[in-house]
Amino acid sequence: MLIGQFCEYDGQSRGRIKRGLVVADVAKEAAERAAAMCRDRFNVCPDIVIEGNTDFKLTYVRSHLHHILFELLKNSARAVVDQHLGATGAERRKRLRLSSKGHLGSNGLPPVHVVIAGGKEDCVVKVSDEGGGIPRSGLAKIWSYQYTTAADDDKAKTAQEQTFRDNFYGVGYGLPIARVFARYFGGELKIISTEGWGTDAYIYINRLESAALEVLPD
C-alpha cells in the first residue's frame, strides 16, 4: 500500500498520516516532554537545540515521528546528565572542559542538538548528544525488547515510581518500536556511537510517496 493512500486531508487525527507536517513542531513537542521527564528525575536537563531547516514539511504520521524523537531525546538527555553530573571533582571539570569546546548550555551541561535536513529522497533528522556514547559491544543490545538502561540498584519503591522508571529508562520497547515506526514507510533509524564522547542518531524518512511502501515488521 502506498503512503499517499493513507493521507488524512483534514489533519485532525494524530494517528493518521498528515500532509504538511512541520518536523520542527513535532521535535519541539517531543523535546518539551523529554525535558520535563528528565527534570522530574534529575532536577536538571540539558538544553535541547532544534536547528537546520526548521520550516521543513513532509507527509507522515505525527504520532510515529513524535515517538521516535521522544525516545531519542529522552535517552540523550539522561545520558548527558549521567555523564557530566555523575562525575565528580576533577573528572567532571575535565569532561565539561572538553565538551562542546566550552559551548555549554544555560545549565552548564552540553546541549542536545536536533538537526533537520530535507533532501530529495529523505528527510533526515539527526539527534546528537555528548552523553559518553555506547560501548561497541552494547550497540546490538539497544534493539532488544528485553533491554533497559536502568541500573540494577535503581529499584522503584512504589507502583507510581515503577511506571515512571519504565517510561524513563524503557523496558525494551522504546527504541525497538521507534525503529519499527521509522521503517514503516521505507525509512530507517540508525545509531552511531563514539564511546567516551556521545551518540548520533539518524532518522531517515522517505519523501518519495510513490516509493514508500508499507513495510510491516517481521
TrEMBL record:
The keyword Nuclease does not apply. It is found in: Mitochondrion matrix. It holds the Pfam family HATPase_c. GO terms for molecular function: ATP binding; pyruvate dehydrogenase (acetyl-transferring) kinase activity. GO terms for biological process: regulation of glucose metabolic process. Signal peptide: none annotated. The keyword Endoplasmic reticulum does not apply. Its EC number is 2.7.11.-. Residues 60-209 form the Histidine kinase/HSP90-like ATPase domain. Keywords: ATP-binding, Kinase, Mitochondrion, Nucleotide-binding, Transferase. GO terms for cellular component: mitochondrial matrix. InterPro entries: BCKD/PDK, HATPase_C_sf, HATPase_dom, Sig_transdc_His_kin-like_C. Belongs to the PDK/BCKDK protein kinase family. This is Protein-serine/threonine kinase. It comes from Aplanochytrium stocchinoi. The lineage of its organism: Eukaryota, Sar, Stramenopiles, Bigyra, Labyrinthulomycetes.
